Q: What sequence folds into this?
């Protein structure tokens, strides 16, 4: 089973069992967002991670970014339960 197939199973289960939580997810990253993040971080994302992020972007929404905190060189810091990749910046 691929990363996309596995994550689709998780998302389908979440949509069925917790539709409000499913609705709160930010959606997919775009190729442009991933390319900008790779350039900024000076790395190439693993193909499995890239495939997963194209299904599910766990970046913080702009309004949740705390500009007074720095995390791994990127502005903002995630709340508990969020990842912060900086893809949307």
A:
């Amino acid at each position: 089973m691929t990363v996309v197939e596995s994550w689709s199973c998780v998302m389908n289960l979440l949509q069925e069992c917790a539709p409000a939580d499913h609705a709160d997810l930010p959606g997919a990253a775009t190729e442009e967002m991933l390319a900008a993040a790779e350039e900024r971080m000076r790395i190439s994302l693993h193909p499995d991670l890239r495939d997963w992020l194209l299904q599910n972007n766990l970046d913080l929404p702009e309004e949740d970014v705390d500009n007074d905190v720095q995390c791994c060189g990127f502005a903002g810091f995630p709340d508990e339960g969020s990842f912060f990749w900086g893809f949307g910046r």
